[in-house]
Structure formats: structure tokens, C-alpha cells
Amino acid sequence: MLPLDLIEETWILAACIQSACWVVYWIFCRNAVMADLGFCVGFGLVAVVDGLNASGDPIRRIVVATMAAVYAWRLGFHLFVHRIADKPEDARYRSLRKQLGRWSEVCAFVYFQGQAVAVVVLSVPLLVLMAAPTPFGGIWDWLGVMIGVVGVGGEAWADWQLAQFKADSRNRNKVCQIGWWRYSRHPNYFFDVVHWWAYPVMGLVHPNGWLTMIAPLVMMWALLRVSGVPYAEAQALASKGEAYRRYQATTSVFIPWRPKRRDKTMTRNPQ
Predict the structure, then answer these.
(1) pTM for the whole thing?
(2) pLDDT digit string, tens, across residues 178-206
(3) Which DSSP string corresponds to 201-243?
(4) Each residue of 141-192: pLDDT tens digit?
(5) Are 212 and 200 in contact (CB under 8 A)?
(6) Rounded to an integer, what distance in angstroms lies between the CA atom of residue 127 and that of residue 211?
(7) How many C-beta neighbours within 10 Å does residue 256 have?
(8) How far apart are CA 96 and CA 108, in angstroms?
(9) 3-state class of 172 per DSSP?
């Protein structure tokens, strides 16, 4: 059985963090990406707290907590540097605030707390693994760790490539097609999901291991159908127009794959 006391503590911790982030958003920065930052900070702290308090094999708890915390805090640092610090708020949040009118701040608080709920749901796989008494070191453990490293490393690499591309003023309003972005329109999302599949692999031989499927399935649904790809595609089409349509026609939306054809009007390293 899952430790319900730890799940309750997880929710309280995540809700407090999101409340603090909402206060910062409301008073200081007016950037709703603070909710995403709160998710990252909260998920990393929850992983550490669960690792300290779960009842399973100590080495497994350390490994799983480290994997989750590195993933979350790396992403949180990236969001802070590239989407919060001295950066304008994401256009989709500005548009949504205008649509909601006087209810925008109430809805914002609900959205922030929704991220706390997401922390609770996505921490279930961690708790399942941390409660397992089996000593760490089996083949599925190491395979899961390798998948986690590939996921976090690949996402960091893709984020870095896009940041380098955007830092060059000559690339304004151009489509990034360097590195991983030549083979996928959203390689950062792809590697994010790869990371989440590490936990089901590690849970294959453990009681309640099927619960570890929650995280990758929820994240795939969210990124592919809700808050990830649909919004990113719409924003890119609005800002880059025909160039992005050509990119869509040649490049895989999610899984990195060889481009269908090479458009002569779009070079690998735009100048």
C-alpha cells in the first residue's frame, strides 16, 4: 500500500510552495511561468522528503530521489533563466488573462494549486519505488537509471541548443533547426517523457509497479494534447508563419527522426 501520510505531506508541501510562488507572481513579476517553476521546485523537494521518509531499500530511495530532484531542479533553473528573469510573460498566459478579465487572479491561484496536485500525482511512482524492500542493483534498476540519464541529459541538450539559437539576434523570427531540432519539432518534450519512463522500467518487478505508469502517461497526454505541443505549435505559427509550416511538413512533431526532405529555403544553420 502507498504511504498515505507521505502523500498528504507531499500535497501540503507542494501547496505551500505554489502559494508562495503565486504571491511572488501577484506582487512582483506578473509572470505565470512562476507556476511551472513552483512545480519544479516542489517536485524536487518532494522527491528528497519522500526519499528520507519512505520505508524501502535506502540505496533505491537515494537513487530515485536523486533522479527526480536533478530532473526537476535542472528544468526549474532553465525556466528561471530563460522564461522568468527579465523576460516577458509567455504570450499564451497574457492572452488567457485578458480573456478571463476580473477572474484572472482567482483562476491564476487555482492554476498554481493545480500544479501542486500535479506534483502529488507524479510523485506516486517515486513512492512506489521507494517503498520497495528489494535491494537496488538489478538489471531493471540500472536500465531505468540509464533511461533517466538519457532523458534528463537529452532535454538539457535540446534546451541549450534552442537557447543558443535564440541568443543570436540574426535568428530572430527564424526556425531553429540545429542539433536535435533538425529531427524533432519538440525534442525537449520528447526527452522529458523519456525521463518519466525510467520509473516504470524500475518498477517492473515490484509490487504495485503498475502505478509507476501514471507519470509517463499523464505527461505524454499533457505535453502532446494539452499544454505542450498544441500551444507551442500555435505560437510558432503565429510568429514564424510559412517558415514554420515548411518545418512542420518536413520534421517529426515529437520522436526524433530523419527529416522527410530538405527544403532549400531553410538551412541547417540559419544566418
Answers:
(1) 0.91
(2) 999 999 999 999 999 999 999 999 999 88
(3) HHTTTSTTGGGGGHHHHHHHHIIIIISSHHHHHHHHHHHHTHH
(4) 999 999 999 999 999 999 999 999 999 999 988 999 999 999 999 999 999 9
(5) yes
(6) 10
(7) 18
(8) 10
(9) coil
Longest distance between any two alpha carbons in the chain, whole Å: 59
Within 10 angstroms of residue 158's Cβ, the number of other Cβ atoms is: 23
Please name which of 134, 125, 118, 117 lies closest in space to residue 2, comparing C-alpha atoms.
125
Question: What gap in Å lies between CA 32 and CA 142, rounded to an integer?
Answer: 37
**Residue 246: count of CB within 10 angstroms of its CB:** 16
Q: Report the candidate in 5, 4, 36, 30 with the shortest Cα–Cα distance to residue 18.
A: 36
- What are the CA-CA distances from residue 6 to residues 27, 44, 124, 200, 236 (Å)? 32, 15, 10, 20, 41
Q: Which three cell numbers stand for residue 91?
A: 504570450
What is the Cα–Cα distance from 80 to 84, expressed in whole angstroms?
Answer: 5
| N residues, the chain | 271
For residue 197, give the C-alpha cell: 519512463
Residue with cell string 513552483: 38
Is residue 74 within a helix (H) or strand (E), and if so which, with residue range?
helix 58-79
**Cell 505535453 appears where?**
223
Tell the residue number behind the cell numbers 535506502, with chain if given: 58
CA distances (Å), 113 to each of 63, 209, 222, in order?
Answer: 28, 28, 16
Q: What 8-state DSSP symbol labels residue 80?
A: I
* pLDDT tens, position by position, 199-256: 999 999 888 899 999 999 999 999 999 888 998 999 899 989 999 999 999 999 999 9
Residue with grid cell 533522479, as numbered in its chain: 67
Q: Using alpha carbons, select from 260, 90, 92, 126 the residue that is nearest to residue 198.
A: 126
Q: Measured between alpha carbons, how far is residue 188 from residues 131, 152, 180 in Å?
A: 30, 9, 9
